[in-house]
Amino acid sequence: MDFFVSGNLHRYPLTAFFLLLYYFSTGQHTITGKIQDRVSTLALSGVTVKLIKNDSTIQSASTNAFGLFTIKNVKNGTYIVRTSIIGYQSLDSVVKAYADLQLKMDLESSEIALEEIEITATPAASIRGDTTEFDAKKFSTREFADADELVAQIPGVELDEEGNVKAHGEEVTKIIVDGKEFFSTDPRIALKTLPAEIIDKIQLIDEKSEQAKFSGFDDGNRRKVINIVTKPDRRRGTFGKASSGYGDHQKFALNSSLNRFDGDHKLAVNLMANNVNETNFAEQGRGGSRRGNNNTERGLTDTYAGAINYNNVFLEKKMDVSADYNVKSSGTDVVSNSDIEYILGNRANQFQQQAQLQHNKETAHKANARVRWNIDSMQRLDFSPNLSYQSVHRIGSNNSSMFLNRSDLLNRSTRKNDHENGSFIFGGELTYMYRFRKAGRTVSLNVGGNKNSNDALGKNLALTEYYKDGLLNRLDTNNNQSITNGYGSGFNGRLSLTENISKRSRLQANYSLRNTRNYSDRQTFEWLAETGQLGELNARLSNEFKNDYLYHRAGMSYAYNKKDSLRFQVGLSYQHGVRNNDRTFPINLLTRADFGSFHPEFSLTYNINKERRLELQYHTDTNTPSINQLQDYINNQNELRISNGNPDLDQEYNHNLKVQYKDVKRASGQSFNSSFDFNYTNDKIVNSVLTTDTAVVLFDGIVLGAGGQYTVPINVDGAYGVRWTNSFGIPIKMWKLNLNLNNTTFYNSNFAVLNHAFLNGYNYGIQQRIGVHSNINKKFVSGINYRLNLTYTNNPIATVPTYKVYSHTVNHTLTYEFFRALVFHSSLLYIYNSGVLGDPGTKTLLWNASLGAKFLKRKNAAVSLKAFDIFNDAQNINRRLTDISITDVTSNTLTRYFMLSVNYNLRHFNR
């Protein structure tokens, strides 16, 4: 008909007119659409879609795994599109079909549990695809608590002393709110911005890449994400907090947060300033408290920081836009003392003592944005630019002495350094996805790139004395200045095509391209003492180096999907890479290396039932050495710790296997998660270390003195690690408690080269955490956590082959509100670190407490007297065990102080 009308219209105008009139009056149209969960924005499969006219069903369809449906051959007219699926409220939409239509429908949860219709309450916990969901009402927090206090109680979730989050043993890289980006630059900020009281659900998500979610093929790129689902009646309003405090020893702390939520439009602003070691937003309000005892590099820190986040939707909610920016300026003074005992090779029975002074000044800016545009039901665009700048200035001094058998002096060194470094990074990622009308046929293209620059200036003055038989044998002076200028760029792209070959199986073809280019020019000049000026360029300590790496990768994957039961994917790709190293100074040298490797992949997901799920993933990847590892220049800023690069390094080839089992009881809230991880690496990059008790000439003009160490990276085969992580959570309703158990067992086989001898050592151990939290009410909230870390380290040529190091940590928190307006808060921390080789263990008991009185009509303001480290027992002590040494480090830390503070909480929501 189209040909007849367009080609013969001028010959048969009357006939064409009636044909067109008939076509538009009885036209056949197509209705397509996507259906998703309104809160999480996750696509809903298996939704029944009915097209109804005059109370009669004309046609019906169901959504696929991506939440998409299609109804064809729809005549002109007005219809009702009705959706239905167990667990969600039915939705009727009136549509007028006089042309092709594209619909987007959001369904609300009906609070009816699958397969348990008699239960009317929201499930305490549930599994939905890659998401494990917990009902926030099953956990108690104190009034006006931040989100981190709630999230820390979720089974399998851990927060460390700096607010970093792990879920089921994996680092959480991002916090999202109602499925949208929220402070993506730093997930810790989100947890201190949102109040716990507005949270409805917590979702732990194994998030796939945008390409993988769109195409249905797993590309192996996953990250752990927490989605905070807010209560529907808390999505519109203004809320925030502000606090100010001043104490003895001129201690101060200022914190504020202001948020405006209006549905999809969100604006959040955070500010902080303090000199009580609250170094990031996750630590604000803790008054320098910590959960561990391994922050010996922190010392005493002043911090000033700000952050802002913006979210909104445009183009009739087809485009989501989010952006965040944060800035931080900090100054840190560290005074530390180290006691090092060497346990391997000819260094055994050597001991080193160090005293260090360090002042660091750091300024950092970070900005991220994301634009997600659903152009129509067939096309989607995702764009994520990012930018960061960091400036660091370090001034320090170090005094070191090394002894044989703790009595015979081998060397003594005094060093001063002044280093400045500035780095800038700009990049982004763009993904375009297109879905053809034929079911299962898609094409997607992902491209990304970045540019970076790094400039550094280092001044170094070192005086080193070497002794032999107790007498001064040699005196070396190292007085130089190094200037480093570097830049780099990178580009990557991935094209993916998918096609259905049956109702349950699909094929994917993919091609990837990546290119990185880096340049570094390091110039080292000797200072002339007689003139006080820079002398000639030291060619041996200077280097100009370019690195170019290009690889292509192509492969095929097959996926089989049996609805709601079994899904597996198998694939194979081949990667070929070419690396060019071009050293132009001090000697021209061009080297080229070719790499070729096959990359198999396999994944399986088996839904045993609605509450249990088994997953298996296997994939391989490569890791290219950095330009610092490749660049062959001598770094002797510390004459006792000389290092060099290796331009002949190969890339690492990694095998990764993960098996995960999830079991969640929807009614009771009991949850169990177990994951087994195995990693095996060929051509692993490790350090080859040369140690000596006598002077050794490394190169012309470069001498490694007695007690010194020379390090070069090399490749070794066969390194592997095994990790088994379990988390179990159960509410004890009888006592109104929540019990969480987290356990990790690990075994790592490590390789090293010491004095040209190949060493195969290993370490193994367990980490056990037990947490019990009350779930009574907001006026009485208490929790206790116990953590055990136990590690065995085996070194075959050590003085003692196996070393055991363990620690016990107990943390108890209590908040009690009495007499309606008085609030008592207590945090008690006990840490015990074991000794090694007969050395005594160390103990720390840290108690912080506050007593406050609420005021104002809504009792949303309070004045409090806070006491930090009441027992005055705070100390920074850290024990480090490596392949060749045992190190005890102590440093200055925040000690007892008292502070009077005023707090105000803003809550104003539009019901």
TrEMBL record:
Residues 435-819 form the Outer membrane protein beta-barrel domain. It comes from the Bacteria. Residues 281-300 are annotated as: Disordered. Signal peptide: none annotated. InterPro entries: Ig-like_fold (IPR013783), OMP_b-brl_3 (IPR041700). It holds the Pfam family OMP_b-brl_3. This is Outer membrane beta-barrel protein. The lineage of its organism: Bacteria, Pseudomonadati, Bacteroidota, Sphingobacteriia, Sphingobacteriales.
